[in-house]
Design goal:
The protein is an alpha/beta fold and 1100 residues long. It is built from 39 helices and 30 strands. The strands form seven sheets. Strands 6-5-7-4-8-9-3-10 form an eight-stranded mixed β-sheet. A six-stranded parallel β-sheet has the order 11-18-15-12-14-13, with helices on both faces. A five-stranded mixed beta barrel has the order 21-22-23-25-24. A hairpin with a 2-residue loop joins strand 24 and strand 25. The protein is globular, with a radius of gyration of 43 Å.
Length: 1100
């Protein structure tokens, strides 16, 4: 215990001297042996200074010269005198046997009992000696001995039998002094707690007798506690039977391949429903390939990564390289040739191949894997294949594979064809179900579920937060109660919830759990690696979206926690905004999803299923989820369907799941306004018609329309596909993004605008939380500061434009330069991305998509490709304003005009109204942007999300000058109405543009009108030039040049230079132009498009 110089004596009856008090030249409590010999410390002299004492000790411990035997005898005599003095004056309780020099003192527990000592009791008590040595302390603390006067008097009496008896009675107390000090606080605490408990019990009894509300709450609490005990007893009883298995112990049930092959041979359509991991994706296509040297098989996967991985797996099983007998084909990449007999494709790639040549199906077996996902393109593919089989137009076997499928409804869909189903029995292991009320009881939480959770389509946000809190508590309970080798699989609504729970677990249970996130951005190989990973004493927790409902088997999973929620697009036909921008809505899952999620355990051992939904309301859930085609935008799918049908509504009516008519109408309007399709009754349709495409689809269109009319009574409007539409059909991007590529061909900026199309399709790679103040770093994370840092980086890359698209384009080019500079050091590139607040994965996705677009366009039309990132970067720095112009036109349907502004991150006041729609939007403050909305700005957002009742805009371009915006539309809109007028001030032009069915009129002065008309004439010429080049792409260069000369057209590079030069000149002289929006009631404007804009029309 450290010495305190000002400490007061609290117990005068103790005969043991406090530390630091000198008694007859020796410190109290100090052994007479060598260990401490010669040490003296006067607290009075040094005022209790420990440093002074140490200094004194160090000085005395310095080595002195030895004087041999004389010194030894002197020390021995001194030692004897000190020992004799102690025997006379030192109390018996503190007398200690002399120890040999250098001998280690015995511990206190091994020393002799002081009560057995025969040494005489001193005549003065310890308190009296303290009073004599420290009179000032005694005066300042008169209360020190007042508490026990009888003990003080007894200690002062003359020695005798009574004194000896009193002294001996005190000895045991001194012997247990240290232990008593340790025990007393604990005893006092117990006494205080006992008193508090008694008081609480009396208050409880009084409240139970007098307070009915208190009594009700207490009885309810007792019920919750009893339910918790019962449920936990049940859980531990069931869990006590759990086995401990390893991955190597798992036996996967294999397919009965002879039976499957026989069913395929005997039927047109075969459904194969087996557990995931049974080998159907690799085994069945491989077995079909080996049936005969004449078989040609195609197997589809919904995702690109799975397509490539399975192709490589099958090729390795056959001990050959990918591209020989086994290959893969995805948009932008192809490994194989005419000799390849087993193709693995994405489902969209197969649809495109069928649409190009529906009369020539080059496969004997078509396998559609993961059929349960039913993406919109897969619905159309199945509709086409069924029509071919029913009409006898092709001879092939159709195999539909899934781990879960409602085969009854699909068998009815294929009525008239021979259909069979192969189902594999699953291993039987008990699964213990705990629904919402059971989960609450297990955790001791009061359960008060709403009477009807399905009263509304959307789930309340507060309920989601409660379920997330319940999830966290359940994970903690299972982590404490279960074996770490028994993993947990938690189903969460979306990626945002996965990342939130992951952060919470890593912050609160870092040494107890191994968190494995699982959503659409996570590769399947990462999950397989995590499944084999085992961290000692850490429980593996898979946090997954609905993507884990059907996937690889997880043999280590024993517990499934299901929030029974999913986040999916939901279209409300009564809300126009939801048709244009389907919002992600939190909704309850279906009964099939509950069955599927429950089936993730019980495959290799018994399991536990915790469902956060009341058991009494499960019957109210829908049997199946709505097909994705019913709640998705289908603009690009409709455009692709135009290859085989005059109206996509005809083929959609043949699908098992069908989109809303309002969705189809919206898609047809978008495609018409972009110039991709035209109504056959349109006056411009004859000039825009492409004979090759029209003849190709005529025969199929008649069959499809005839089949559709059997179930559709309304008249089906027919459309024709334009050259622009055909160009956009080839691109793996949306039609508005494809328009950027088209503008690149018009201006000679093909490579730059292909990059722009990839950027707007992949969205922003900028992240909040990177850099030196990133999440997880030292110090608190401040969102506003992190957002500001990210936006400052974006502004530095925006080429002095108020455009997020330009900023991302420059970031992508700088990323490519870093990749080239650090080819052998990818970690340096990752570090660069971190410093620039960029996501490496998203930037890589942009670069990959850029390559895919170029791959698809290579066969369509040759173009000049700038491969060097440095050359493209120089072009961007020079022509960034033109990129802004073309981007604003491609996405003009989403243009907003800012009516109010605000500048805070937490309380956004900005509000904007749609220029061509009735939408109102506000900026998404959670998405970083290099621009701030200002009043009267025109904002062109690339991304619009309907969040509950708010439309949030992000990834935008801002145009401060309305004149610039209207001139951009007049120059690049595919379709215009215009007329020339004159008044006393001279000639002027009035133009009309139509988007989303809304008309806007723009008046320009005579000079500006002439500039617009002349520029569009140049566009008309280059449009004709591109079309002739495509239609005659097999012609040699000399013949093509002669053909162009016959039409009075210049070579393509020369015309493109004229276009870009004129464009730059127009916007440099914008101040000299008058262009403003006006009202015009007359119906006296002529209609023109790119292709129909002729010289005679200009002269008129």
């Amino acid at each position: 215990m450290p010495w305190r110089s000002n400490a007061k004596v609290k117990r005068d009856a103790d005969s043991k001297q406090p530390a630091g008090v000198k008694v007859d030249g020796k410190k109290s409590g100090e052994s007479s042996g060598a260990a401490g010999k010669g040490e003296t410390w006067s607290s009075v002299e040094h005022s209790g200074s420990v440093l002074s004492w140490l200094e004194q000790k160090v000085k005395k411990s310095k080595a002195q010269p030895s004087r041999g035997a004389v010194e030894y005898l002197s020390k021995a005599m001194e030692k004897k005198k000190v020992t004799d003095l102690i025997k006379v004056e030192k109390p018996a309780a503190t007398s200690k046997p002399a120890e040999e020099p250098g001998k280690i003192p015995k511990p206190r527990s091994k020393r002799a009992d002081p009560a057995d000592s025969d040494v005489a009791v001193p005549t003065k008590s310890a308190v009296q000696k303290l009073a004599d040595m420290f009179p000032e302390v005694n005066k300042s603390a008169p209360h020190a001995g007042a508490g026990k006067p009888s003990m003080e008097r007894g200690a002062a009496e003359a020695p005798g039998e009574e004194g000896k008896e009193k002294s001996s009675l005190q000895h045991p107390q001194r012997g247990v002094r240290g232990r008593r000090r340790r025990d007393d606080p604990h005893r006092r605490l117990q006494q205080r707690l006992a008193k508090e408990q008694e008081a609480a019990q009396r208050a409880h009894e009084e409240a139970m007798a007098n307070d009915p509300e208190y009594k009700k709450c207490f009885l309810s609490f007792q019920e919750v506690q009893q339910a918790m005990l019962r449920t936990q007893q049940k859980f531990f009883g069931e869990y006590g039977k759990q086995e401990n298995i390893t991955i190597s112990d798992v036996v996967v049930e294999r397919l009965d391949m002879p039976v499957i092959l026989d069913l395929i041979e005997q039927h047109h359509v075969v459904f194969i429903c087996t557990d995931t991991g049974s080998g159907k994706s690799t085994g069945i296509p491989k077995a079909l390939l080996e049936l005969s040297p004449h078989t040609r098989v195609v197997s589809t996967q919904p995702r690109r990564t799975a397509t490539i991985a399975i192709a490589n797996r099958v090729a390795s099983l056959r001990r050959e390289n990918v591209g020989e007998d086994v290959g893969y084909w995805i948009r932008g990449e192809k490994r194989g040739d005419e000799q390849t007999r087993l193709w693995y494709m994405t489902s969209y790639t197969l649809l495109l191949r069928l649409l190009e040549s529906p009369a020539e199906v080059p496969f004997t077996h078509i396998v559609l894997d993961e059929f349960h996902e039913r993406q919109p393109d897969l619905e159309v593919t199945v509709a086409l294949l069924r029509l071919m089989l029913a009409e006898g137009l092709a001879s092939f076997k159709l195999i539909l594979m899934s781990a879960t499928l409602n085969t009854e409804s699909w068998e009815e869909y294929f009525t008239g064809l021979k259909v069979a189903t192969y189902k594999q029995s699953e291993p039987e292991h008990p699964i213990h179900d705990y629904f919402l009320e059971d989960c609450c009881a297990l955790l001791g939480v009061d359960h008060a579920a709403p009477p009807r959770l399905l009263r509304t389509e959307a789930v309340d946000r507060g309920l989601v937060e409660k379920h997330l809190c319940l999830l966290q508590n359940l994970i903690v309970f299972l982590n404490n109660a279960s074996n770490p080798t028994h993993s947990i699989l938690a189903f969460l609504p979306g990626r945002a919830q996965v990342e939130m729970v992951q952060s919470w677990l890593e912050a609160n249970l870092p040494q107890r759990v191994d968190v494995v996130p699982w959503h659409s951005a996570i590769e399947l190989s990462q999950i397989e690696a995590a499944m084999k990973r085992r961290v000692s004493n850490r429980q593996k927790i898979y946090l997954a979206t609905d993507i884990a409902e059907v996937s690889i088997t997880l043999p280590d999973v024993v517990f499934v926690i299901d929030l029974a929620l999913v986040k999916r697009p939901k279209i409300n036909v009564g809300v126009p905004a939801s048709i244009l921008y389907p919002p992600l809505v939190m909704q309850w899952i279906s009964k099939v999803s509950i069955t599927q999620r429950r089936g993730r355990v019980g495959r290799v051992q018994q399991g536990f299923y915790f469902c956060f939904f009341p058991s009494s309301q499960v019957v109210d859930l829908p049997d199946h989820a709505q097909p994705p085609i019913e709640n998705s935008r289908i603009d690009d799918l409709s455009l692709h369907c135009m290859q085989v049908v005059a109206n996509p509504v005809a083929i959609f009516s043949l699908c098992h799941g069908q989109p809303h008519l309002e969705t189809i109408a919206s898609s047809m309007n978008v495609l018409t306004e972009l110039g991709c399709i035209l109504d056959v009754e349109d006056p411009l349709a004859a000039g825009e018609r492409i004979p090759r495409l029209s003849d190709h689809s005529a025969r199929w269109s008649e069959r499809i329309v005839a089949s559709a009319k059997q179930g559709v009574t309304a008249e089906i409007t027919e459309y024709t596909c334009t050259f622009l539409g055909r160009m956009l059909q080839l691109m793996p991007v949306s039609p508005p993004a494809g328009m950027l590529v088209f503008f690149g061909f018009l201006t000679g900026l093909e490579s730059l605008m292909i990059l722009a199309a990839a950027v707007v399709s992949s969205l922003s790679p900028f992240t909040v939380g990177g850099g030196p103040h990133r999440r997880g770093g030292k110090g608190p994370f401040k969102l506003a500061r992190a957002m500001e840092e990210t936006e400052n980086v974006m502004r530095g890359m925006s080429c002095e434009q108020r455009s997020d698209i330009v900023a991302v384009m420059k970031a992508t080019l700088l990323f490519r330069l870093e990749m080239e500079r650090h080819v052998s050091n990818p970690q340096a590139v990752h570090q660069w991305c971190l410093q620039k607040h960029l996501s490496f994965e998203k930037l890589q996705a942009i670069v990959d998509l850029e390559s895919h677009i170029k791959f698809e366009l290579a066969d369509f039309m040759p173009f000049r490709d700038i491969h060097e990132a440095g050359g493209l970067l120089e072009q961007l720095d020079k022509l960034a304003p033109m990129v802004v112009v073309m981007t604003s036109v491609a996405f003009v349907a989403q243009a907003l005009e800012v009516r109010s502004e605000g500048n805070t991150y937490t309380n956004s006041q900005e509000m904007a109204l749609g220029l061509f729609s009735d939408l109102s939007a506000m900026p998404d403050i959670h998405s970083p942007s290099c621009l701030r909305w200002r009043e009267e700005d025109i904002i062109i957002p690339i991304q619009l999300n309907l969040f509950y009742d708010k439309l949030l805009a992000s990834f935008s371009t801002a145009i401060s000058s309305p004149k610039q915006f209207w001139m951009s539309l007049l120059l690049f809109s595919t379709r215009l109405h215009y007329a020339t007028f004159s008044d006393h001030d001279g000639a002027f032009h009035v133009f009309k543009v139509i988007y989303c069915g809304r008309e806007r009129f723009v008046e320009v002065d005579g000079v500006a009108g002439y500039v617009v008309v002349e520029f569009r004439r140049k566009l008309c010429n280059i449009f004709q030039l591109l079309r002739l080049t495509w239609e005659n792409k097999e012609m040699f260069d000399d013949g093509l040049e002669q053909l162009l000369a016959e039409h009075g057209l210049k070579p393509l590079p020369e015309t493109q230079r004229e276009i870009i030069t004129a464009l730059v000149s127009i916007f440099k002289n914008l101040d000299n132009i008058t262009a403003e929006e006006v009202e015009h009631d007359g119906d006296d404007l002529d209609i023109v498009s790119f292709l129909s804009f002729s010289s005679s029309k200009v002269a008129a």
